[in-house]
Design a protein that fits this description.
Length: about 280
């Protein structure tokens, strides 16, 4: 019998088979590991996305709640007159053109300051507004031209008729110690309000009128031992309203809202109008 010769594989071939098996095992194991890693990554990404979505929802809900709160606050501020009055800003009583009015109570110290002012004014000469002739423009418009006891003057800066620039009034030049007293009072009462002029009315009963030379908002307050003598304003599309300016100051736009005053008892009655004149200082 002839024996068949054994076929022996060459060593490099065996090495190749071993390497191939190893590479196959490695590839299989590698694939399984990569799959596991990918699954873990997917789970992590899903959990992160869920947490982010939840956090995003929470943030969105918080933002919505904040916006709702802000809207509610703005509405409550517009509705509540007490907040606007305390700040001296806009009140709920607004006309279409932006004319505003609000009142602020006077403290004991502020009333004492006003008393000092009106006592010093009693010691100086205030020109009369009574005249049998045509008279000046302001007494004619306010209706004080025919009142014998009525006296009016201004402290601070004024715009003379026919001129554009502002200059100090005659009363300010004659009595320079009075205008700083008005500044001191307003700094305590309404610190944010700025003014250039104070118009002083003594024993006047003003008829329904508008202050044409006033620029923007003005503040009116009264002092003296008088009774009654309230200030009445006539807002557009609304009923008239009366204010006791002896107990609280009144802020309103006198160039847009018509106003007047009622009769008084037990004179003297002083009313002070703080406002800004239309013009530039020289």
């Amino acid at each position: 019998m002839k024996l068949k010769p054994k076929r022996h594989r060459s060593p490099p071939q065996k090495r190749r088979s071993r390497n191939r098996s190893r590479s196959r095992n490695r590839s299989r194991g590698g694939r399984s590991r990569s799959k596991r890693k990918s699954k873990r990554k997917r789970k992590r990404s899903r959990s992160r996305s869920r947490s982010r979505s939840r956090g995003g929802r929470k943030r969105r809900s918080k933002r919505r709640s904040k916006s709702k709160r802000k809207r509610g606050r703005s509405r409550s501020r517009s509705r509540s007159p007490s907040r606007s009055r305390s700040r001296g800003g806009r009140d709920k009583n607004e006309s279409k053109k932006g004319a505003i009015y609000n009142s602020k109570k006077l403290t004991k110290n502020e009333k004492a300051e006003l008393k000092k002012i009106y006592l010093t004014l009693e010691q100086i000469h205030i020109p009369t507004s009574f005249s049998t002739t045509t008279g000046s423009n302001h007494p004619r418009r306010t209706g004080t031209l025919g009142q014998r006891d009525a006296r009016q003057t201004s402290f601070g800066y004024i715009v003379p008729p026919g001129k554009k620039g502002m200059r100090p009034s005659r009363s300010t030049e004659r009595y320079p110690h009075i205008f700083p007293m008005f500044k001191r009072f307003m700094k305590k009462h309404r610190p944010g309000f700025k003014f250039t002029t104070v118009y002083v009315n003594r024993n006047t009963i003003a008829k329904k009128h508008i202050d044409s030379r006033n620029a923007g908002v003005s503040v009116i307050v009264a002092a003296g031992p008088f009774r009654d003598g309230k200030t009445v304003i006539f807002p557009k599309d609304k009923t008239k309203k009366a204010f006791n300016i002896k107990e609280s100051s009144l802020m309103f736009n006198g160039s847009e809202i018509e106003h007047s005053s009622t009769p008084y008892k037990n004179p003297p009655r002083y009313s002070f109008v703080f406002f800004n004149t239309k013009g530039k200082k020289k």
